[in-house]
User: What shape does this take?
Amino acid sequence: MTREAWGDTALKEGEEREFQFGSLALTVRREGREFRTRRTLAGEERAVASPSLLRGDDGWKRWVFAKASKTMRLSPRVDARSIVVAPRDQFHLMRGAEATVFVVLPLWVGIEDAASGQTMATLPTRSMGRGWFGSRTMGEVCFWHQSRFFHEPPPRQEGGASVICTIHIANDSKGDLPVEKVCLRMRHFSLFWADGRYWTDEARLRFEGKDEGSEISYTGHPPPEAPLAELVRGPHERPGSVFSAKAFFNLFSIGGDQ
Assistant: This one.
């Protein structure tokens, strides 16, 4: 996806525009002080007797502002919610070993009123599963995504609305680490642009044991593979230099798509 797909679009009164980002089809309409948005994701089908249809819901969402605005803005983002990534090619990281992997994640689209800067919605560019990461009494709602874990930067995905996430994993535990799923706290990532694609900064996970958890840090600057990358958007939340959290276990209740 080229950067020209993003930016400001002026809409006349009653005008409707359509946009395509990966699997996301987005329609935006201007009506007085309102912007109205409607989205569909490839592969989504509504059930004939779904609650939304029984309510007469036509799929439009309405966003009413204090003052009328002619211009809406579309911007690339990563979402604030965590994503649990399951590798298609699982591997074991032996005691004392380290590895850097590259994961391709869906990009998100931010829809803003250009005049006020207020965000109306943030939408994924592809359908994602949902789940719960943590124990049965403490954890967080997250997205679930399956992807290859590349050991070198993956080839550019032509036309894909995606972002490359660099993860450095070190196993400091007393045994081997089965890398079957990794929880990425997306709210701490920055977004960069380089060489025709989007990147996050590097996440560094130091696994100390299933009970001890992992030391996690985010570099805050472009990964070594894209040192001259341009900052597109900072993190939703800046973490401390290092913090401890679970990163490799405890995914429950994979649910429906977003």
